[in-house]
From TrEMBL:
Residues 1-30 are annotated as: Disordered. The lineage of its organism: Bacteria, Bacillati, Actinomycetota, Actinomycetes, Geodermatophilales. One of its GO terms (molecular function) is DNA-binding transcription factor activity. This is MarR family transcriptional regulator. GO terms for biological process: response to stress. Residues 34-166 form the HTH marR-type domain. SMART domains: HTH_MARR.
Length: 174
């Protein structure tokens, strides 16, 4: 049996004296007696993906493809394997996705100027235009997601999510 009191105390301490802000009517969702954190994170991921599907449908692009393009926008000259790691997909899925995005002219594969045996990926002008066209809508979706939170809580959420990811990647600092 889980020690829900300990979890609730840690959550209140992490979120400050005001406690968690929730739009749910189920008190169990915030007092630790409800679903696990992993379950809630998965529900959030599915809700985000569904809303991103709606936003990106006119561009005929998936949320994973959009994520890959944003990764390339921030980090040019990645290999397909590096893109896979940064886009949360397997190497095979990334290879398939890269082929589709390249066929659509949204990214290009080039010889690495530092290692001519290696191919790197770059966002094309067309890919950048697509990101620019949808950036505001995606930003509005994120704003909608954190609307129930104060700005400090939204910053804390971002930091906590990043820490949790680092813990699972084995890169968290203690």
């Amino acid at each position: 049996m889980r020690d829900t009191g300990r979890w609730a105390r840690r959550a209140r301490a992490a979120l400050g004296d005001d406690g968690p802000v929730s739009t749910t009517t189920d008190p169990a969702a915030v007092d630790g007696s409800g679903p696990s954190t992993l379950y809630l994170v998965k529900q959030l991921e599915q809700a985000v993906r569904a809303r991103l599907d709606e936003v990106l449908r006119p561009a005929a692009i998936t949320p994973l493809q959009y994520t890959a393009l944003t990764v390339l926008e921030r980090h040019a000259d990645l290999s397909t394997a590096e893109l896979a790691r940064n886009s949360f997909v397997t190497d095979q899925s990334a290879a398939d996705m890269v082929a589709v995005l390249e066929d659509r002219g949204l990214l290009s594969r080039l010889l690495d100027p530092r290692d001519r045996r290696r191919r790197v990926l770059r966002l094309t002008e067309r890919g950048q235009e697509l990101l620019d066209r949808y950036r505001d809508e995606v930003d509005r979706l994120e704003s909608r997601m954190v609307a129930p939170l104060t700005p400090v809580q939204a910053d804390d959420l971002r930091r906590y999510v990043a820490l949790c990811r680092a813990a699972l990647d084995g890169t968290a600092r203690r």
